[in-house]
Design a protein that fits this description.
It is a single chain. By secondary structure, this protein is mostly beta strands. It has one domain: Beta Barrel (Thrombin, subunit H). The chain has 1 helix and 8 strands. The strands form 2 sheets. The protein has a 6-stranded antiparallel barrel with strand order 2-3-4-7-6-5. Strand 2 and strand 3 form a beta hairpin. It is globular and about 35 Å long. It starts with a strand and ends with a strand.
């Protein structure tokens, strides 16, 4: 009998924005591919180690900057999945405004991923 597991995760929002990562004294450019309340998917030309904690900065849309502390959960071929650890109050407010402006009534819909 074939059972299918359904994993629920926070809804992801595709945004594709240029961003900047900071680690220790290093800064490098990245592309933010999507974001959820708990994580960010990033494309980066620099090697990132699992477990590294970095700062990320980008604009959700013009005039709505977003800054957070993130932790690399996986990295492969320039693609990084990161957990959001900490968001400053201004960025949190900007996140809520971004959702209201672009995804009113959709932000709380669950995203489902089927694993076989």
């Amino acid at each position: 009998m074939n059972k299918t597991k359904v994993a629920r995760r926070p809804r992801r929002f595709q945004i594709r924005r240029k961003g900047e990562l900071s680690f220790e004294n290093h800064r490098f450019i990245c592309l933010i591919h999507d974001i959820s309340e708990k994580g960010i998917f990033i494309i980066c030309n620099y090697y990132l180690e699992m477990g590294w904690e970095l700062a990320v900065r980008f604009e959700l849309e013009p005039g709505l900057p977003f800054e957070a502390k993130i932790k690399v959960k996986h990295f492969s071929d320039g693609c990084c999945g990161a957990q959001i650890l900490e968001v400053d109050p201004r960025s949190d407010s900007n996140w809520k405004q971004f959702l209201k402006n672009n995804y009113a009534h959709q932000s709380r819909l669950p995203e489902r991923r089927v694993r076989l």
